[in-house]
Known about the structure:
Residues 4-132 form the Nudix hydrolase domain. Belongs to the Nudix hydrolase family. This is 8-oxo-dGTP diphosphatase. The chain has helices spanning 48-60, 122-128, 139-142, 144-156, 171-187, 198-203, 213-218, 235-244, 267-275, 293-298, and strands spanning 5-13, 20-24, 35-36, 39-41, 63-76, 81-93, 103-107, 133-136, 161-164, 191-195, 208-211, 227-232, 248-251, 282-285, 303-306. The protein is α/β, with parallel strands linked by helices. It folds into 2 domains: 5-128, Nucleoside Triphosphate Pyrophosphohydrolase, CATH 3.90.79.10; 133-310, TIM Barrel. Helix 4 packs parallel to helix 5 (171-187).
Amino acid sequence: xxxxxxxxxxxxxxxxxxxxxxxxxxxxxxxxxxxxxxxxxxxxxxxxxxxxxxxxxxxxxxxxxxxxxxxxxxxxxxxxxxxxxxxxxxxxxxxxxxxxxxxxxxxxxxxxxxxxxxxxxxxxxxxxxxxxxxxxxxxxxxxxxxxxxxxxxxxxxxxxxxxxxxxxxxxxxxxxxxxxxxxxxxxxxxxxxxxxxxxxxxxxxxxxxxxxxxxxxxxxxxxxxxxxxxxxxxxxxxxxxxxxxxxxxxxxxxxxxxxxxxxxxxxxxxxxxxxxxxxxxxxxxxxxxxxxxxxxxxxxxxxxxxxxxxx
Length: 311
């Protein structure tokens, strides 16, 4: 590790209602008055998760019970370059209390409500607005009519991120389906990502585009769309997605799938190795079921992407 980079453990304390905790830096410290996620420097010999537990006990007086590794981002301030190891903390004992002169506030990704926020934390708010489950369309097996009925049911039950991926349809068929899906998804306040080229996604008024690995590697700059993600299968592809500044990636296959039964799988340990210290939210794909979400979090995923089990 570069000794000039200061390693930091940062906590996204998540309440059951989706809010998270921010802290305002007290007078006398660098960037006094700015807001950030709680945490602090990792001491020599400490693992990031150990520093996280220690810092939250010292700063907030709480005992961490459950924390999941999430994103790692490097940011250069005027006074230092920091490597921020973010953890999503979902269970703790005690009521967070300011013990070092800071001010605390509970916030939401869509409306932070406090300012100014330290610039290193801006991308974290965007990542927090991504749901934990992505549903991939399955018209090829279900047919258009059945899929649209199941889509409505899934949206009514809380699914908030859909990727429309139908390679077997003609352009005209795909456009007709996309318009129906866009209307349904937006009526429920959810987000639709279209697996196509950026121009098609924009024309069909989707919220963003999802690129396959070949499209990803051919890009030299991020598409000019609100949301952009990509499918990855290797370290090279993951690194390129990060350089482009995409919003998320889908990585797999993690487990065997019905659609690709002979494909080489990463397994959970292989998945964890690839996403360790990665800066973008990662969805695990390949054989995913709802019961795999907890395990995905444990191995560093933002969430899971499901095909058949989403519907």
